[in-house]
């Protein structure tokens, strides 16, 4: 199966951690916002599997997160 989208997940803007998840559709060359993370995170790991996006771990402004999100 070919890759059809690229996701940008969380991150940091200056001193603010972000809960944003954005999707770039390779077929239409467009960006869209998808469901946000449950909490603002940076330094996450993610994988797409069977139509779902899984996000693992990361950091908030005050803690290291050891949780997986779907």
Structure write-up:
With 70 residues, the protein is mostly beta strands. The protein has one domain. The chain is 0% helix and 54% strand. It has no helices and 8 strands. It has strands at 5-9, 12-13, 16-17, 21-25, 30-34, 45-49, 52-59, 64-69. A 3-stranded antiparallel beta sheet has the order 1-4-5, with no helix packed on it. A 3-stranded antiparallel beta sheet has the order 6-7-8, with no helix packed on it. It is globular. The mean pLDDT is 93.
| Biggest sheet strand line-up | 1-4-5
Number of domains: 1
Spans where pLDDT lies below 50 across 5 or more residues: none
| Fraction of residues in H or I helices | under 10%
Helix and strand run: EEEEEEEE
**Mean of residue pLDDT?**
93
**How many separate helices?**
0
Beta-strand residue percentage: over 45%
Shape category: globular
Q: Which structural category fits the helices and strands?
A: mainly beta
Largest sheet: 3 strands, antiparallel
The oligomeric state of the chains shown is single chain
Give the number of DSSP strands.
8
- Compute the gyration radius: what is it? 13 Å
For the termini, the CA-CA separation is 21 Å
């Amino acid at each position: 199966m070919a890759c059809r989208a690229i996701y940008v997940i969380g991150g940091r803007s200056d001193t603010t951690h972000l809960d944003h998840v954005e999707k770039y559709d390779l077929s239409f060359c467009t960006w869209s916002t998808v469901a946000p993370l449950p909490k603002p995170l940076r330094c996450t790991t993610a994988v797409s599997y069977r139509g779902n996006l899984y996000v693992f771990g990361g950091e908030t402004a005050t803690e290291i997160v050891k949780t997986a999100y779907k």
